[in-house]
Design a protein that fits this description.
The protein is α/β, with parallel strands linked by helices. The chain is built from 14 helices and 17 strands.
Length: 355
């Protein structure tokens, strides 16, 4: 698929309305709330909510009785399914595929962070910016990821994602990491990516790991206890040093904002490093990616480190983040990869200096 082919693809909401079958949301929680809002904003009537059999215990969700799939089929016959949760578990993904063979199934592209869902009209309003990113990608696989990802976002069809899954090792070999890295992990979670990087490189010259959520930070501290030359910082990555509200616990709903019940420290990477060396930065900060990049601006301009950026927290991150990095410091090569995940989470941007 080429960039120009995207124009002819039908928008997800238009297809759901055209099919005209009763619409059931598959999943609850924060994802279910966002898909319900997506439906309300687009005039899509919702007939009900269902969950996997293990989660059906007579409860209700947003005023809907939570059914099993069999109960939804018994009530409404052939239905349209809107997926409202994310997974990388092979058995769960296979179950979703099985449902997709029985019914029309869509996964509306709603954001992990914020309230701005993807819109075909808005994408084509920013067409020139999107095309610039597409043309700046360094290999054909990256361009296939960009168009396949956009095709999914427009249509809600998971088949476009399946075509671009790249089952590569983490961290990506495109980063060309070695033992002398000064590695900054922004959004270290429980230390999983620190451990992956140390395993891949055999060790790093120095590691700085930032994680704001207290329980995750404690796990990260325990998991990284045997690693030399690591500095753990219990703070959020941000554009500048301050104190911020934090809400949502330790999962994907955790976020910085004005209404959080907990106050946490927020730090810029530039402040932490004080002008010190950096060769590799990983960003996975649950929607604060652009502010975190702004807080690394001095470091990026000075040292031009390798970058690995999550592109899936906000629906247009895969356009906005490469453009911001290019504006900040030109000359990077950009690669885009999509890990095996429903829906389009775990999308990564690799930015490296040319060999």
């Amino acid at each position: 698929m080429n960039f120009d082919d995207l124009t002819a693809l039908p928008a997800c909401e238009d297809e759901v309305k055209r099919i005209g079958k009763p619409v059931y949301i598959y999943g609850m929680g924060n994802g279910g709330e966002k898909v319900l809002k997506w439906c309300a904003d687009r005039g899509v009537a919702v007939s009900g909510v269902f969950a996997s059999d293990d989660f059906v215990r007579g409860q209700s969700f947003c005023g809907y009785e939570v059914l099993s799939l069999a109960q939804a089929e018994e009530r409404s016959g052939d239905i349209t399914v809107l997926l409202a949760f994310g997974t990388e578990l092979p058995d769960v993904m296979a179950h979703i595929d099985h449902i997709g063979k029985r019914h029309q199934l869509f996964a509306p592209d709603v954001p992990v962070a914020g309230d701005r869902a993807f819109s075909k009209a808005e994408f084509f309003f920013m067409r020139e910016r999107a095309l610039h990113v597409y043309e700046s990608l360094a290999d054909e696989q990256s361009k296939r990821v960009f168009t396949g990802l956009t095709a999914y976002k427009i249509t809600g069809r998971l088949s476009y994602l399946r075509e671009i899954f790249t089952d590569e090792a983490k961290p990506s070999t495109l980063l060309r990491l070695g033992k002398d890295e000064v590695y900054c992990d922004l959004g270290a979670y429980n230390g999983d990516t620190v451990l992956q990087t140390v395993s891949a490189t055999g060790g790093c010259k120095k590691i700085y790991a930032l994680e704001p959520e207290k329980r995750n930070f404690q796990k990260c501290t325990r998991n990284c206890i045997g690693i030399d030359n690591i500095e753990l910082v219990n703070a959020a990555a941000w554009s500048h040093d301050c104190v911020m509200a934090f809400e949502g616990g330790s999962g994907r709903q955790a976020k910085l904002g004005e209404k959080g019940s907990t106050l946490i420290a927020a730090r810029s990477l530039d402040s932490i490093l004080h002008g010190g060396e950096c060769t590799y930065i990983k960003y996975d900060v649950e929607g604060a990616d652009i502010p975190a990049l702004k807080g690394s601006a001095e470091t990026i301009r000075r040292f031009q480190p390798k970058l690995c950026c999550a592109l899936y927290h906000r629906c247009y991150d895969y356009i906005d983040i490469p453009l911001y990095i290019e504006e900040l410091c030109g000359g990077y090569e950009f690669f885009m990869r999509q890990q095996r995940y429903y829906p389009a989470w775990e999308t990564e941007l690799i930015a490296v200096r040319p060999l």
